[in-house]
Design goal:
- By secondary structure, the chain is of the alpha/beta class.
- About 60% of the residues lie in helices and about 10% in strands.
- Strands 6, 7, 8, 9, 10 and 11 form a 6-stranded mixed β-sheet that branches.
- α2 runs parallel beside α3 (about 65-75), α18 (about 480-495) packs across α21 (about 530-535) and α19 packs across α20.
Length: about 525
Amino acid sequence: MLNLLLVDDEAYVIDDLEIAFPWDHYGIEQVYKAYSGPQAIKMLEAHRIDLVMTDIAMPVMTGLELIRQIRQTKPELACILLTGFAEFEYAKEAIEQGVVEYLIKPLDHKKLAACLEKTTGVLREQRQQADAYQQALSSFREHLPALQDKLLNELLDGRAYASESLQEKLEEYRLHIREGDTFSLLLVRLEERFNRYGEHSLTLFEYAVTNIASELFGDQFEVWHAKESQGYLVFVLQLSPGQRDLSKAELTDELSRRSRQLHANVNEYLKGGISAVLTTPGQFRRDLVSMHDSAVAALRSQVGEGSGFFLSLADLPKKVRFQSLSALYEPPTFNQLLESGRWEEFDERLKRLATEYETLQGATVEHLDEIQSVLMAAFHYVAHTNRVLLTELVGEDLSHKMLFRSLTQLLQWASRIANTLRDKLETRSVSQQEALLHTIEAYIDEQLSAISLQAIADHVRLHPVYVSKLFKQLKGMSISDYILRVRMDQATYLLKHTSDKIYAIAEKVGYSNSQYFIKVFRDQFGKTPQEYRDQS
């Protein structure tokens, strides 16, 4: 809705007009009145006015003088001029002042209605455009950090922007750095404590670290930051306009001092460590990718246990010869230990691996990656040899490759998976053994007339010795004793409930020699089969 200000020194004119005209039909919600130019100025200062309708001929300040003053502070305000003089000079100046309409007194309500229809329509359209612009501007401001992040990542990935196109992007995204400018790069990795939590918490920590860095560097440097593809925070640092020029050595010293302060502040305020690498100054954008690659290599060359570390490439230490971890590959391998269920030996191997790792001169992130890859391969191997996916045994969270900042964190993960595997596989093994036992028992029942240990082993596709040992372990009796019991149970049933001959019953229960059947039966029951039948 719109607000209107009526201005005329003849009070009855605007009082009558306020009452007599249907303003609400034209989207006008509030009508304000002023009886002089100075009073109108005060009304404009006190209220939001969208449209002014003023008489020309007024004492102290004419309508044209009022409009001239309005144009100085509110050039967008729509003005309609009322006059009793249809003279060209008035019309000419009114046009020069941007008056939207020029109405002759006494007012014709039809002409006023047509004038308001046109003017308020234009005002509503302008307001809609202004609202749309503000909404777009607000959305742009909201997404500006993401746009800046995306552009920096594109440049780090080597995307080839034409110079003019890059210049436009930098200006559009409100970034002050230009091609050829001197800058330094700071790469930050959040260490162990921050990675104990979920992805949402990690994002909050990254946001907090970014804010601390922006405050520390922002008074003297332009800061452009992003999270790059490997999960590190990257900061492009350039001296702000108007700052005293510094030599490369002075610039590196100042940035090193502030980077160390960043390292200390994060430890103090967030109670967690970061590792940071500061490059030597270079030229934007020519040196951006190579500087980033050097910083990543330096960051991966050291493990930031606990509180992390700070490293300036200007003071890069001499490289230490890379050492491998023998405990990762010595026999029996992790695959073999897990496959054979030697869980205690697996735990001991992890402890020896930790001891060997601690003695390394120059442990790197790649050592952690190597350890995780070998252990993950072993976990997948033992799961697949049991014909099941690792995710089904230990869950999605543990089975996916994770980002570890310390060996302690990595070994805790490995122990959790190993313990879960042990519980699940042992339970699964018992179930499988019980199922195997039922299969053997059912096969004995079905093939009683021609059963043998070898036939049973062939049926379940296992070695006869293993079948015999497993059966006794699970059933508490040897397989031969079980077969004898089943044969005798079947024989007594047939003797009681059928009229079959003794030799026929002997054949049905697996004895080709009836005399031998009679002997075995007597040994079990103290009587012959015929005596048992007669007494039943």
